[in-house]
Amino acid sequence: MLERSTLAEAKRVVVKVGTSTLTHSTGKPNLFRIEQLAKELADLANQGKEIILVSSGAVGAGMDRLGLKERPKTIPEKQAAAAVGQGLLMHIYEKAFSEYGQVVAQVLLTREDSVNRSRYANSRNTLRTLLSHGVIPIVNENDAVAIDELKIGDNDTLSAMVANIVDADLLIILSDIDGLYTANPQTDPTATLVHELADITEEVEASAGGAGTTRGTGGMYTKIQAAKMVINSGIAMVIASGLEKDAIRRVLQGEKIGTLFLSRENRLQFRKRWLAFGSRVKGCIQVDEGCERAIVEHGSSVLPAGVIAVQGDFEEGMTVSILSASGREIARGLVNYSAADVQHIQGAHTHEIADLLGTKPYDEVIHRDNLVLLV
Description:
Helix content: 25-40%
Strand order of the largest sheet: 3-4-2-1-5-7-8-6
CATH class of the largest domain: Alpha Beta
Number of domains: 2
Structural class: alpha/beta
């Protein structure tokens, strides 16, 4: 498990850089920062580290070239801006990295590349092959073709997805946010920066704001969700300000900047990593406190007796989220029954399943071998 003092040992590092770091307030590219970023990452590659860059800014670059004053609101307009901007952004990166003799490659992903297991594996093979040749992949969402149901949505989530795909040691998210605070520093003068976090509790999630709030959209909420994705896969994560000079190098030197999310010691197997963070969640199963304790403390299967509610319309074999009685997501797993069947047998004992359904293919709603803890 990586700690501050051992971050320099990270071999494979994913770096996500936000739009605020890469552009001026005018929306035009900040060439000075892009050049500094290229220099810093190329130097890390020279040290033998494997670097993947997840970059925002394509839509912004396209807006500038198209003469748009406001960010597009419709999907076709965003896709048009992204189609123009991707090439411009890669041209800037290609030129900046070539100054230091570093080869880069553009990789565009959509949600389908993580939802479909074979495409997930193919993305993994492609990225790891590029790394083996000393290339720095520059990853972005394929906004030019992605439709709503296939969109990843934000680059915090994309960077966590990429870190999982390549089995990274560390994810560094650079933003205009210094890190996680005890409260919103814009409204609470007593808020202090959290330098290190070992567990993402319900209180931590609540302090980050909701997904539907102004503060949560692309803000700390999405970063907390990204942290949940990676630390449960054994990957450490740091949130730091992209405005800090040499932030990446200083993080890797163990300097106390930003917030370090400590990883859990276990490394998920490839199949379980895809199950937890790649496959699309089709519904939710809520369990009582006794079932929650059994799952969290012993990794037990989900039995019908512990189920108290069902949400969504899923079929046998799909991925579902397992919620505690309070509504917190505690695990994900492949369900053995459809949503309608789970509703019929919820609260029942195992020996009652056949009477209720007319058949009993499984004792468990979700078997422990097909379940991944998220807490």
